[in-house]
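Protocol step 4 of 6: structure prediction from sequence.
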Amino acid sequence: MKKTMRYNIKKHFLIIIIIVVVLINLIPIPYYLLVPGQAIDLSQNIIVENGEKDAKGRFLLTSTTIVEANLLLYIYSFFDPNIDLKNKNENILEGMDQKEYIDIMERLMLESQMVSKIVTLRKAGYYPEISGKGIIVKKILENSPAKNKLIPGDVIIKVNEQSVRTIEEFSKIIQGHTMSQIIKITFLRNNSPYSISIPLIELPTIDYTIERLGIGIYATTSDLQCKFPVKIEIDLDRVKGPSAGLMIALEILNQLTENDLSNGLAIAGTGNLSMDGKITKVDGIKQKIISAKKQKADIFLVPKENYQEALRFTQNIRVIPVESFDDAIMKLIKL
């Protein structure tokens, strides 16, 4: 009888534990975790037609991973110094599920790869032909002044009567303005043109930065195309977002030219690369440096805007700030 009672008590206790664990995993909370991602040797993932692959060093692409938090992960994050806890309501994931976020990041990665090819080929003396048909609206933030004026699927073709073909052109025009300034947007909806006036706002960032100002939308270039004089194959399907642009461009250039830009070193880094060669701010610096250290990187290239933050994590690695693609090249040559 006593054995039966003890058995029943243990059985019920086990059931309670299982129920608690299940509930902990099911309870939704408004947070996600930013954790270290991969550090990838780009020479294994990029092939340039007739390119040289005799570099003695390596260019490493670093990344972060975003994980939806449950109560258990939320508690765990306080015990792991490599993890940052982010509030969805204060960052880019506001009003967006993880699938939507990943879809946007995939599109931005593809566009980043194309920009990297263009910038690098121009640097090497080639002239790729670029074309786009405006920027297509993918999603509108809750606090966007464009809400109820623009909808997903609209294609922006002009800003203040200045034609816009690509997201890069749109960004460049926007950054020439000031906070709260009103801009005129001309867009196509069902192939019919419309115009609206919208004030500029500051944008949240998490590995997607159109500098600091915008109209609160997520967008990509509509039908972005480019004819490349040199075939470049990039296999980075598991990497999302635009912050790989700088490192992709450096690996392509290293294969295109005779000199070894790596100088026999393991060079990691991060940075959004724009069509004009500028390197802009990214998020997740701590996690990316941790990824680089795990691969025993000697150098970490970081956007100048992230340099002060990066200095907090420089133990066993040298951090070098860069403002542009040319700046990055010159600093590598001087190593």
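Step 5 (inspection) to follow. Residues 129-221 form a domain with the Pdz3 Domain fold (CATH 2.30.42.10).
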